[in-house]
Amino acid sequence: MKTALGMGLIVLALLAAGSIAPAQQMSGGSAKKPTIASTLDFQLTIVEHEITGAAEAMPEDKYSFAPTNGEFKGVRTFAQEVKHIATANNRFFGAILGEEPMTGTVEDVGSNGPDSIQTKEQILQYLKESFDKGHKAIATITDANALGPVDHPPVPFLRGRMQLAMFACVHAFDHYGQMVEYLRDNGIVPPATQQRQRGPQGGAQSGPQGGPQGGMAQPGTAPPPGR
After folding, report:
1. Interatomic CA distance for residues 49 and 216, integer angstroms
2. Per-residue tens of pLDDT for the chain, all 227 residues
3. Residues 10, 220, 191, 185, CA torsion sign
4. What's the predicted TM-score (pTM) here?
5. What string of DSSP letters covers 147-212?
6. Does the residue 226 lie in any domain?
7. How many domains does the chain have?
């Protein structure tokens, strides 16, 4: 049910993004026609900005934190949440790029990634590289191949390129919601929420593309949502 709702929301978001993409992509007074790839990339940029900001905001000594007040036995630590997002990104977007899955389970969709990645710096690099792969993969999606199956689907029910890219965003935001709870449990307001609370009077914030309002470098767009 959660997955179905999430997919529905992301479809609506994609449609909305398509409608504002011309304003976002203004350059020299001429609008650039949105494409499937540009619309998907717009969504991934928002996901990347919020998750990376949250991962950077948590102090390294809290990366081993997992909630205990309630039914939380066996849940992932904050570090494992971040690594899991990166690992799933690599599998979803790697499939779009035609990469063959690695043998073993360390890079499976449901895993938490390599045990050798331990420090906050290493985990952040792992996360950011997974989003870099996402942008690279999405850039290969066209009208002609968007619905076509990939050669190595990460899970049986995800075979199309556009389907994989959309689900990657849904999956990452699902775990972002958990990261937000972990941050707040430690008295930290998520950066995306801080930006919304400050508003325009608080000054423009630099995002992943170096522009104002949470990384949306082009005029005519709103800042990403916060939690």
Report:
1. 10
2. 444 444 444 444 444 445 444 444 434 445 789 999 999 999 999 999 999 999 999 999 999 999 998 888 889 999 999 999 999 999 999 999 999 877 665 666 678 889 999 999 999 999 999 999 999 999 999 999 999 999 999 988 999 999 999 999 999 999 999 999 999 999 999 998 888 888 765 544 444 444 333 344 343 344 445 56
3. negative
4. 0.76
5. TSBPSS-SBTTB-BHHHHHHHHHHHHHHHHHHHHHHHHHTT---HHHHHHHH-GGG-----TTS-H
6. no
7. 1
Q: Cα–Cα distance between 173 and 51 in angstroms, integer? A: 8
Burial of 122 (C-beta count, 10 Å sphere; 0-12/13-18/19+):
middle
Q: Which amino acid is at 89?
A: N
> Comparing C-alpha atoms, which of 118, 108, 147, 1 is closest to residue 60?
118
What residues make up the domain containing 148?
Answer: 2-21+33-201
215 is a domain residue: no
Query: Distance between terminal CA atoms of the chain?
Result: 21
CA-atom Rg of the chain in angstroms: 18
Identify the CATH number of the domain in which residue 39 sits.
1.20.120.450
Q: How many CA atoms lie within 13 A of 114 on its CB side?
A: 11
- What's the half-sphere exposure (Cβ side, CA atoms, 13 Å) at 210? 0
